[in-house]
Automatic annotation (TrEMBL):
This is Elongation factor Ts. It is found in: Cytoplasm. It comes from Spiroplasma turonicum. GO terms for cellular component: cytoplasm. Its main location: cytoplasm. Gene3D superfamilies: 1.10.286.20, DNA helicase RuvA subunit, C-terminal domain, Elongation factor Ts, dimerisation domain. It comes from the Bacteria. The gene is tsf. Residues 79-82 are annotated as: Involved in Mg(2+) ion dislocation from EF-Tu. Belongs to the EF-Ts family. CDD domains: UBA_EF-Ts. One of its GO terms (molecular function) is translation elongation factor activity. Associates with the EF-Tu.GDP complex and induces the exchange of GDP to GTP. It remains bound to the aminoacyl-tRNA.EF-Tu.GTP complex up to the GTP hydrolysis stage on the ribosome. Residues 70-271 form the Translation elongation factor EFTs/EF1B dimerisation domain.
């Protein structure tokens, strides 16, 4: 059967594969659409396996909730361009909804959940890698059950927040606290959550950058401790000045609402991933030297 432009277009609409890949698939299967889909899947998965070690530091974060539960996820792609792809966004939405309805307790559990297509989330990510042409992966997930839950998704789809509260805080106030967390990026809820390793590292930096020469030992130590406490306050939610009302801390605001925070998650796309910075001019120069 002849491979026509119409057949190629039809296969592309069905699979989202590239035009040339669709053409190759149809040529390899004598124009049989069903066999071509199988061919694309088999060959695409092989390509996807080769992309498994690539760095995927772009993507989308998403937090959603119902009356009993809230979840937050990060799904990565290699470029920001793909993260705006409608099929990619649709996949993320379905992944989030399936996880919300599940009882997962780990990333591994989430990856094994099945979507409406019958594929697991892990398989769907591999299939998306094959059709989109970039590594797609569910990087992390968190789920919280409770009566008073709030989520926030920033408009750039790169920052999401999930918080569970105890107390009678209103939905509006809970949402505003989530927005604060998105904007101010606290690492910890309270000073009690700050690990000793963080304190030791910060104190080392403070000692290296603070001149206390000639000051009595107790005065010098007070200066150093004061700077450390200031740093801890900057990264601790309850001690940060509340962005809605900077005259009070978030902790004092919550006390006024007779509420407290049980769990806090803030996902920002790509945080903690070492991105590969490509120097195009250097790459070309290296190739020329090699020729």
């Amino acid at each position: 059967m002849a491979v026509t432009t119409e057949l190629i277009k039809q296969l592309r609409e069905m699979t989202s594969a590239g035009m040339m890949d669709c053409k190759k698939a149809l040529e390899a299967t004598n124009g049989d659409i069903d066999e071509a889909i199988v061919w694309l899947r088999e060959n695409g998965l092989a390509k996807a396996a080769k992309k498994a070690d690539r760095v995927a530091a772009e993507g989308v974060s998403l937090a959603i909730s119902n009356d009993k539960k809230a979840i937050i996820i990060e799904v990565n792609s290699e470029t920001d361009f793909v993260s705006k792809n409608e099929k990619f966004i649709s996949l993320i939405d379905e992944i989030a909804k399936v996880i919300l309805q599940s009882n997962i307790s780990s990333l591994e559990d989430a990856l094994n959940l099945k979507l409406s297509s019958g594929s697991t989330i892990n398989e769907a990510c591999i299939e998306a890698t094959a059709t989109i042409g970039e590594k797609i992966s569910l990087r992390r997930v968190a789920a919280v059950e409770g009566k008073n839950l709030a989520v926030y998704n920033h408009s750039n789809k790169r920052i999401s927040v999930l918080i569970s509260f105890e107390g009678d805080i209103s939905k509006e106030d809970a949402y505003n606290v989530c927005m604060h967390v998105a904007a101010m990026s606290p690492k910890y809820v309270s000073s009690n959550d700050v690990p000793q390793e963080f304190k030791d590292s910060e104190m080392h930096i403070i000692k290296e950058t603070t001149d206390v020469t000639g000051k009595p030992e107790n005065v010098a130590q007070n200066i150093l401790n004061g700077k450390l406490n200031k740093k801890i306050a900057e990264v601790t939610l309850l001690e940060q000045a509340y962005v809605i009302d900077e005259k009070q801390t978030v902790g004092n605001f919550l006390k006024s609402k007779k509420s407290s925070i049980l769990n806090m998650y803030r996902f920002e796309v790509g945080e903690g991933i070492e991105k590969v910075v490509s120097d195009f001019a250097a790459e070309v120069a290296a190739q020329l030297k090699g020729n």
